[in-house]
Amino acid sequence: MIAFVLKRLPAAVAVVAFATASFAQDFPKRPVTMIVPFAAGGTSDVIARTVAEQMGIALGQTIVIENVAGAGGSTALARASRAEPDGYTIAIGNAGTNAATYTIYPKLPFTPDSFVPIAMVAKTFGIIAVRKDFPAKDLKEFIAYAKANPGKINLGHAGVGSSNYLICKSFVTAAGIDATLVGYRGAAPALTDAIGGQIDGVCDAAASVSQSINEKLARGLVVGSTVRLATVPDLPTSAEAGLPEFEAQGWNGLFAPKGTPPAVIAKLNAAARTAVETDAVKKRFADLSTVAPDPDEHTPEVLQKLVTRDVEKYRKMLADDAK
Prior knowledge:
The chain has about 325 residues and is of the alpha/beta class.
């Protein structure tokens, strides 16, 4: 009986392999859902919609955006981890949702191994901006004001564990100030409250805050980059503003549930690579002060290395925030 089973095993494996290959060859036969871990209008959402449109063209199917806000992106990632591993549900994430969150929320129903990396799709740059009538006119005055009023300044972000939260943490640590960090369900509602004067400012990515700065709805203080951004050319870098310790350069990547067939991942990766190389995405990214990955940064392995690196990085930085 055992010998009979062993003889049949190679045939069974071959059938499974053939079925998997056939499935991957036909993928996708229907629209793909891309889960965005934040409310509409924020950095991840804008990048997701920009990339998804061109990925859909490359795949020959529509990619539907589903915004699932809450818990700094953890609600969305939990849903993505439970999805059928067939390539029809993927998620966009960043250093917050896919690295820092494991320190901040150690009892999550998912781990880094719950996901398969598809591709990095964007590099982002963090900005600190304040309401237009805030008394400090530049970063030096802001830090002096914050030190004279400990705990009284409040800065909004997209939720504990989000990349914007990491921008806040990096900033207050570098500046040596005591500020109240206020979490929202996404970057857009935080920015809305800053513009409306309900909070003093925001920690945000250039992709979502640059336009408000240019329209003088908010006032930029600093960009955590080594070079000035074309969309906000008057905004000083951290070194120029006198705070070189502040660094806020992030990334966005696409992930699929563990168990998604490698051939399907390869198709999604190829579509993502094609998308970020299109003129449409390059132009939109330029408008958003967002940068596409370099040619050698498109592989799933590069994204996996970023996750592994940042899990450890934020484990050290955010140990006191663990719940």
